[in-house]
Amino acid sequence: MAERPDLEYFVPILDRELSRVDIVSVLVKKPVVLRMCVQGDLNTNLAGKRITSVARRGHFILFSFEAAPIQVAVSPMLAGRFAIAKNAKTQPKDLAIAFTLSDGRELRYRDDVQMGKVYVFPAGKFEFVPGLSAIGLDALDAKVFTKKAFATLAKSRRDQLKVFLMDKTAIDSMGNAYADEALFEAGLHPKTFVRSLDDEGIERLRKGIVCVLDRARKELVKRAPPTDVKLRDFLKVRNRTGAPCSRCGTKIRTAGVHGHDAFFCPSCQPETRATSIVDWTKLSR
Ligand SMILES: [Zn+2]
User: Fold this and answer.
1) What is the per-residue pLDDT across 147-199, written as a single tens digit (0 to 9) for each?
2) Given this model, what pLDDT does residue 282 score?
3) C-beta of residue 190 within 8 angstroms of C-beta of residue 255
4) Under CATH, domain 4-128 is a member of which superfamily?
5) How much distance in Å is there from the Cα of 118 to the middle of ligand 1?
6) What's the 265 CA to ligand 1 centre distance in angstroms?
7) Which fold is adopted by the domain 147-283?
8) Gap from CA of 272 to ligand 1 centroid (Å)
9) How far is the CA of 249 from the centre of ligand 1 (A)?
10) How far apart are CA 173 and CA 190, in angstroms?
């Protein structure tokens, strides 16, 4: 999925390129991605409307329009991506929705696995879209993601670290990749139970989250990939099974944690005996 650093990078580009541009027409090529929560089809709702802003809200890309009582929220999931095409003559096979713009360009939403979802809903009614109203702590806002706020959040959790970090109602827009990276940065095993961490461990995790998100955000801005390219080659553990750990040389491994896969270094992120004892005691209550 598009995670926080990806969104931080490409949403402002979409906003800059698309704000104050009119939509001429909309062509839905893969209706399976569409979730209409208003009457009429997408073209009827959007043809002739002006885009006023493109913004991030949680892991969604949120489009707003002038004089239109609707908004569009896109959750790209695994493979959804946006591209702005200057020459719209040849359309890619994975094109899901094409928005023809008044300046001759085409905004394309592409999704070759069609797992992403495009919600069209009454403006401001975030409750119409699953996951759009309850957004977790913003890890890149230093005023929000404080030592105290994160410690309070962590101490309320009974789950394992990987599951905790993936919960978007807890932390804003972390997904599989950056959850693994944050745990590597903090030297914590993905199966560790949150409640087994002491204050120092919780703070190390908070700093790890901020560090990997901020580093990735800066890397993407520096390298400026096209908006439809998900650049992840700088990650240290995610999708690197069998490769040597950049810190200690041990081979990176994977583990299943409650339906999620987690990549980690078994030396830098040891599964401690103390952790398992605490887990069993608390689970059996
Ligand atoms: Zn290591």
Assistant:
1) 999 999 999 999 999 999 999 999 998 889 999 999 999 999 999 999 999 99
2) 47
3) yes
4) MutM-like, N-terminal (3.20.190.10)
5) 40
6) 5
7) Helicase, Ruva Protein; domain 3 (1.10.8)
8) 15
9) 6
10) 18
